Amino acid sequence: MRRIGGVLQRRLRGRHVPVIDAGVAARILRGAWRVSPPACEATVDELKMAEPLLLRSGAGALAWRAIRERKDLAASKAGRRLHESFRLHALQHSVLERRIAEALAALRGAGIDPILIKGWDAARLYPAPGLRPFGDVDLWLSPGERKAAGRVIAGLAPGPVIDLDHTETAGPDESGMRQAARTVMLGSTPVRVLSAEDHLGVLAVHFMKHGGWRSLWLCDLAAAVESCPPSFDWERCLSTDARRREWIQCALSLSDLIGADLSAVPLGRFASPPSWIAASMLAAWERPNPSSLATLPPRRRPIALARVAATRWRSPLEVVYRRGLPLRDRPPRGGQAIDFGWRALKRLALPRRMLDRVPEPRG
Fold it and tell me: Residue 182: which of 230, 116, 108 has the closest Cα?
């Protein structure tokens, strides 16, 4: 089914799609989040091949950390671009931290105290600013606070996006997650973040929701696992919901591909995850960032619509998550085609105002 999707995309777009070996990128990123990364064994040609993928996924700075002790790699054209990526992310880091402080001050002035999730909280796990870029500020609010918070954010000066919509936090114990939140400091600004257990669970579910298409997110999981304190409560992290537990275990098991130490993680049957899951993730790495895809054209231009729609062919892992299917030893037969057909039918048959209201079919 993956092959059918690739052929469909190439034919409808009318051009050849270059192949990038995601396995090379995974080897370059092995242990790159650690204070002392292991020696990188990639060749200059392999680095050149993996560089577009690393930059596109936001892992360019981490890759630079992995190769910087290798003079041949660091001095190569690809190595210099990775170094530039690290410098850029280091500058952006300070800009985003100011944005966080500004947003929290405004929201607390309106009586709203959100919990910051993902980006900045994940970046704190890395040895230096700029190694883990984040393009927006993710704030988790209770449903009753969103409208008021949206008005506050709209009144701020233009700057990095502040995202208030997060489904990854919709676990079986949301109230418990809020009560377990802790406070850390960003300069002189107190910031509420999730507990270590809940943070790791949210990172894992977010990774699965998007089919694992960003290699940087796998590094986040590896960094979070290796920073777990001795008192870490794995039962709390893995959730009481059976399906969410599987998603988290599966996501963590995939971090073995980049050398994460999983010796303390109770992976259950995902100690040896089905091979199709890793293959689906690596294939997703080789595809463009979904946010960079062209906007769907009007329905009155069917050929253009078909070409752009072909770029929205979801990976098997993303289809399994989106349709709420169990993680079996093989992907659901026809799952990608059914998913694509359903979304195409919605697009062509429903009024625009109803597109987001019709749920996707479940397994």
Answer: 116
pLDDT value of position 145: 87
Distances (CA, A) of 89 to 65, 154, 167, 185: 13, 26, 27, 21
* pLDDT tens digits along 83-124: 999 999 999 998 899 999 999 999 999 999 999 999 999 999
By the 8 A CB rule, do 117 and 138 touch? yes
Closest CA to 81 of 66, 100, 61: 61
Beta strands in 152-294 (DSSP E): 162-163, 182-186, 189-193
Tracing tokens 């799952």 back to the chain, one arrives at 335
What pairing do the DSSP bridges indicate for beta strands 162-163 and 137-140?
Answer: parallel
Site of tokens 């910051």: 116
Q: How many CB atoms within 10 Å of residue 350?
A: 13
d(CA 61, CA 41): 17
Strand blocks (E) in 164-218: 182-186, 189-193
> Which stretches of 258-334 are DSSP H helices?
275-285, 302-309, 316-322
Nearest to 276 by CA among 311, 325, 312: 325
Please give the structure tokens belonging to residue 320: 């399994």
The four Cα atoms 273, 274, 280, 283 give a dihedral, to 10 degrees, of 80
The answer, yes or no, to whether residue 363 has pLDDT greater than 60, is no
Non-local (6+) Cβ contacts of 3 within 8 A are none
Q: In which order are the strands placed within the sheet that holds 137-140?
A: 162-163, 137-140, 115-116, 189-193, 182-186
- pLDDT range class, residue 329, cuts 50, 70, 90: confident
Count CA atoms within 13 Å of residue 25 on its CB side: 32
Type and span of the H or E element at 124? none
Number of other CB atoms surrounding residue 286 within 10 Å: 18
